[in-house]
Amino acid sequence: MSLFMELDEYGASAEFYDHVPPYGDRQDIAFWTAAALESGGPVLELGCGTGRVLIPTARAGIDIVGLDQSRSMLAICKRKLAEEPAEVQARTTLVEADMRDFQLRRQFALATMPFRPFQHLITIDEQMACLQGIQRHLARGGRLILDLFNPSLPFLVDESRLEEYGDEPEFIMPDGRRVLRRFRTLRRDWLTQVQDVELIYYVTHPDGRQERLVHAFPMRYLFRYEAEHLLARCGFQVEAIYADYDRRPYGATYPGELIFVASRL
Ligand SMILES: C[S@@+](CC[C@H](N)C(=O)[O-])C[C@H]1O[C@@H](n2cnc3c(N)ncnc32)[C@H](O)[C@@H]1O
């Protein structure tokens, strides 16, 4: 077993990211590109990863800066961008930085955090440092869209998550490796709202050799009113809360998503 985390937490599994079936099938791209077009740009995407959202946004004609602390995820994004037309490349800038402490010396009409990068921040100080940094980078009237999962109470107490679980289909990498991903919650702390989770990749090489790679990380969940208070404390006014990427209102489905649209005060 190999355990990769620390400096580049996504390092060992970055190459799998774009091939994992539920990521490729996520129904959120139209939501993010519509929000980017409504803002007129430029957009700052924090935790842009492999460019899953960043590249379609640039294709839609919007200038976008993608910030991420993972060199491995950014390297994949760069490779993908290199295959895009020159005008799409010209609309994108990638920055390797920590969203808790960044200074880009420009302002944006919209800041986004698609697919929950904010939940990698564990303490209130980290969360506030990130939100205050975003606040400083937004132009007057600029907006932030914060994308969280809505914590499901049955899920949080489900004992079976402490064992390996998962029913995702196996996927095949371009070099022929077969990969099966499973999950485990190693530890959960109901007081700090932190879960130590593992994404476990079982890799079968074309020559039959097998590997087990573990992407282990803590993740913090936030409840609706907590996030609202946090946003207010960091200089934002909540304009809308959605339960899904079709903009249905928060509460329309349970647990659904917890997506905030907030404007800079
Ligand atoms: C689940 S991925 C989401 C990637 C992309 N937004 C998407 O929708 O596919 C989370 C990303 O957040 C990044 N991330 C986590 N903590 C970060 C931090 N403190 N600063 C910058 N990026 C961070 C990770 O490196 C990873 O690329």
Describe the structure.
The protein has 265 residues and is of the alpha/beta class. The protein is 25% helix and 32% strand. It contains 8 helices and 12 strands. The chain has helices at residues 21-24, 29-39, 54-59, 71-81, 86-90, 124-137, 153-157, 224-233, and strands at 2-4, 43-46, 64-68, 92-96, 108-113, 138-149, 171-172, 178-189, 194-204, 210-220, 236-242, 257-264. A 7-stranded mixed beta sheet has the order 4-3-2-5-6-12-11, sandwiched between helices. It has a 5-stranded mixed beta sheet with strand order 1-10-9-8-7, with no helix packed on it. The longest helix has 14 residues, at 124-137. The chain is globular and about 55 Å long. 33% of the residues are buried. It binds S-adenosylmethionine. S-adenosylmethionine binds at residues 10, 47-49, 52-53, 68-70, 73, 98-100, 114-117, 120.
Topology order in helix (H) and strand (E) letters? EHHEHEHHEEHEHEEEEHEE
Helix content: 10-25%
Rg from Cα: 18 Å
Q: Structural class of the helix and strand makeup? A: alpha/beta
Strand content: 25-35%
The N- and C-terminal alpha carbons lie at a distance of 48 Å
Kindly report the spatial arrangement of strands forming the biggest sheet.
4-3-2-5-6-12-11
Largest sheet geometry: 7 strands, mixed
Ligand inventory:
S-adenosylmethionine
Number of H- or I-type helical stretches: 8
Overall geometric form: globular
Q: What would the average pLDDT be, to the nearest integer?
A: 96
Unreliable stretches (pLDDT < 50, length at least 5) are 1-6
Number of DSSP strands?
12
